[in-house]
Amino acid sequence: MPFGLCNAPATFERLMEQVLAAVPRSRCVMYLDDLLVHASDFQQALANLTDVLAAIRQAGLQLNPKCQLLRRETAFLGHIISERGVATDPSKVAAVRDWPVPGNVAQAALTEAPVLAYPDAQRLFIFDTDASNTGVGAVLSQEDKDGERVVAYYSRALGKAERNYCVNRRELLAVVRALHHFRPYLQGSHFLLRTDQASLTWLLNFKDPEGQVARWLEQLQGYDFEIRHRAGRLHGNADALSHRPCAAQECRYCSRQEERDQVSPDVMVVQASGDAEGWLPLMPMELREAQEADSTLGKVRGWLEAGQHPERSVVSAESPELKSYYSLYSSLVQRDGLLYRRWQAPGRGSDILQLLVPRAFRPDVLRLVHGSVGVGHFGNNKTLHQLRGKFHWPGCRHDVELHVHCCDSCTAQKGPNQRSRAPLKQHLVGAPMEQTRVRRRRRRKGSWRRCSPRFGAPAELHSDQGRNFESQVLAEVCKRLGVTKTRTTPLHPQSDGLVERFNRTLATKLAILASQHQRDWDRHLPLVLWAYRSAVQESSQLTPAALMFGRELRTPVDLVFGAPPEPEEPSRTREEYYHRLRNRLLVAHDFACKAQASAGFKQKRWYDTRCRGRAFAAGEQVWVYCPERKKGLSPKLRASWRGPGEVVEWLSEVVYRIRVPGRGRLVVLHQDRLAPYRPLATSDAAEPEVSSNTALPSEPEPSDTPLSASGRHKRHRRPPGHLRDFDVQMLVNRVK
Known about the structure:
Number of helices: 25
Largest sheet: 5 strands, mixed
CATH topology of the domain at 90-251: Nucleotidyltransferase, domain 5
């Protein structure tokens, strides 16, 4: 049935009623082209579905491929039908559900999850509309015993031309667009139209309307409504939808619009009954309870409360962390029920008190001193000094270095410390035109027609992932000619290194020959190609012309001094010339293959000396190098690494299939774009053993080492691991 006929819906509905007349409505509900076959169990659903399909087949109708069969939940006529009953369609509350972060408490109240009411045709519909400089909004509601209940929401942004409308025209536009959206509810029934624009109360009394306004008023003639003015302070429901802020943080237009409208920046609304996002100050009682619950600090508290230094034999079998606190006993104090360490900071005239942090709060302290607002994600030394100014625990230097190394924000911006460099993977060619590599910025219509008839179809075609090379047309051409199509991995031009190196040579020669205005470079291109094809290649030790044609090209040198004579007598017959040329090509190809293999071995041996990193296993988390560029954004302020991604499959020696973070799509990437991912430690992690064998940066040995009586240098012994964060020299000075 053609679309657009005025009686098409009724005619099609009558047809479906006749086709499914034998199927009771208790098993199949229909509305135009929507059929809902329902049942209480699986067997009954199969039986009902069989009856419906048989009736449709008998009538000669066909079902749309988008049909959904045997679903537990489906959308039908603006509602979600499931075994739990009838629910609201998410699209009807999208205008409120997708609301950005509110800017104040009043806006936060508008974003509470709305409870929509079912429309009742026996009650009066209340239709509220409003327009702003950027959008229009509308709310359809009805009154019941609980007051006004929302039926549906509507909002949309104004176009470029619509933003230039006057206030009255924008308000009228909001009415027309919203009425068209809610037409199934309001058509044929009397409703109340409320607006905060008093001029619209005289909407139907306009004299001699023209143009667009006349067409809009003509559309409104099909509705039965009453217009009522409503004060703006009472019209907040539709007004909020028309001023809906943009959810995109990188929208330049909305940022400028908010500056013009003087919109306050986003603030965080914290509900008293929910968990607040962000950092809340800890009470001293919570810190004291955490210190008492800590297995190590609980024993230290017992020492201080007893007021006596325990014997060495008491801690000889304890953990290295407790031994570290044992050596610091003279500097440990207790203030207001909390444990502190008295420490003389360098450059300060007096001692400071460092809070002894229990193990449960150490990850939080590390995040605060490194990544919170006002500390700036600095390196190891600055973060360690920031921590030591207020806190202490044994092995804090090692924990700081590990936290900085595993910080996602730092790694995404600065890049991982352990970047991969995979071994060189070579692509050796055994014969001319066996493997063809292309890279073109723009595709010309006759490029393939000129290449294939002249040299024949290659066995393999290698290119980057440009749209021209990944098109369906080229794929079909390669399929018919028996050409194997391969491609490079994204953002890794080294996969097509032969073409990249040739382009570099070509660009260098053109730069030498081109004039200063650079508009005649295309005239020199044939001369550059002539010179390149007659030059001996370093890898094959032969010229491209000799490998392709079995003879050398005549160059300007031959034109001036003449070509040297052939050592052999010229061929007398065609067969003799053919056999001589064939033997010459076989010798040249064999020599070129051996020379290329030798050169490739040297190149790979030199390249692999700088390889680093390791292979990745399936399921391992990795960093992914994704340098994106967006218009209007500085690349220096954007992170080039994203993580964590997941290794899904190992495809070759240096190529992996990765599930990138974000949308979770699968991409094929080279190992050079990957780096191992190390997550941050959590507060409930197992207690690590602090030992002296932990790999940490050692102090540089002084050059002026004193000599002993025997003439040897005195041996400098490193302090044990539990004294790593203790100033040993200060203790020696105090003892002296």
